[in-house]
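Cross-check.
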Amino acid sequence: MGFLPVLAPVLRTLAAALLLLLVRPGLFAQTLREAAERRNFLVGAAHNGSFSDSTYLETMAREYNQVEPENATKFQPLRPSREQFNFSVPDQIIANAAQRGQLVRGHTFIWHQAVPNWLANGTFTPAQLSDILREHILTVGARYRGKIYAWDVVNEAFNDNGTLRSTLWYDQPGIGRQGTGYIEQAFRWAREADPKALLFYNDYSAEGVNVKSDAILGMARDFRARGVPIDGIGLQAHWGLSNQGSIASLDNNIRRITDLGLQVHITELDVRVPVNAAGVASAADLAAQATLYRSVADTCLKYPLCTSIQTWGYTDKYSWIPGFYPGFGAALPMDAAFQPKPAYTAMRDALLAAPPVDRPALPAPIELPVIAARGLVSAASYQGSAVAPGEIVVLFGATQGPASLLTALVTGNRLPTDLGRARLFFDNVPAPLLYGVKGQVSAIVPFAVATRQQTVVQYEYEGIRSLPVTLPVVEAKPGLFTWDASGKGPVASLTASYVPITREAPIDKGDVALMFLTGAGQTGPVGVDGQIVSSTPLPVPNGIVTATVGGIAAEVLYAGGAAGLVNGGIQVNLRIPSNVGSGEQPVVISVGGVASPAGPTIPVR
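Predicted model, tokenized:
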């Protein structure tokens, strides 16, 4: 036992060291993204457009604060025909990024490849090509204004000898502009489409100082002198281990580009290494690869205007290298099982060790629509806290939406689920919409919520969804519509002769009044979302409907759908009690024992 006092100081020292490691900023535990954000820096990866691999998506969200569609924003996939644009994949990439606080780069408006057949095989004149390109840039750029913070406007327009590449856009037949004029015009259109996006020229084999990068720099210098809106140059850096000696030249090139006041993005970094038949690289080659990744990162991070490093993908599971370089692979920071490789650690260590420099502020993240559970209320009673199947509701307070009021047009006897690119979802089911404008949208709760105790609600505008809110589901939540749409005062009602019942034209005792409500819940037959009632059998609530007028039970003659009403709207025909008082009398409708809120009245003579 006598050895304990001797060991105690050692144990105390070890404990203190352990405590120091625990309370220091978590160097080892930090993700690549966290390390980048400490340096006001963007670390990105090309997104392959797949949403079926949850590990791929989750890892990308954890490790990267920037993504770039690998192919989805190129001309060919975006524009399968002259008349048609296909935005589905980039919309989903952007929506996914917005939910995760990631920025999105766009790639690319002009490239000599990824040209659709209708365009490549067309016999367009330069003037027609110019019109097509202008329309394309303005349409795509405007759609993603505020969502794509930077664009590769033109990609790979130069040959390695510094001359301009012969392409459809330049001289086959071109858009009618000499020299770099077509590139200039593309940048001007891109600025018109999105005045705030950063605009880049992007190319390969121009990372160091050479004839090609000289030509690109000369174009950029000319553009800056004449006010052509260019903000940066993208350096692709598809490298191999033979590029170990290229770092000094990369350094010199970044220096001269940033000296012009232009930003530099390393846009497509990967470092291929030899692999065996199983796609496995040697430990020595992976170590050399890591050294090269570290050197590229260290070089970029020296310069305040070198603001982003992006790899072309991030996992060897999805990489273009093996298909283009037989015998090579393992080019990315993570292996095919999404495990970090030495290259990952090298990049993170470079970010953690980088000296602080005064970089431009990071662009604002994509704005998410914001909704609150308390903002979703009955369109009749304006009561919230829960929803019923088929209930007509209003969402107040959505922070984004159509600038002007849009009302639904019935098509095929159904209401639409999209108005001006605004949608409201209940458990991922789009709800039928009645009208929409920024700050307010009216919808009908899908009948499918009847099988649930709660529902997850999300509002979407221009492909970007709000964070979800969860609301309880109740069997019924009846609310009476009133003439002034306040949920209080005279109910929206008619006599049996279809004469409006108002304070100026009250109903007689003993007569029949036709009233309208929502929130009666599931019906039989089962309600069809957004369908306009036009035939029998008419839908009737599953719950028993009762009524009182002036606190006296009123005979309910009919309660259910009516021709011209949307499913979810209910007509109630009741007889005014002969012994009720005169004047405005309170009306309460109950469905399945659930009463409508106080407030609605009916004028009685």
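Residues 1-28 have pLDDT under 50 and may be disordered. The first strand starts at residue 42 and ends at 47. Passed to J.P. for a second look.
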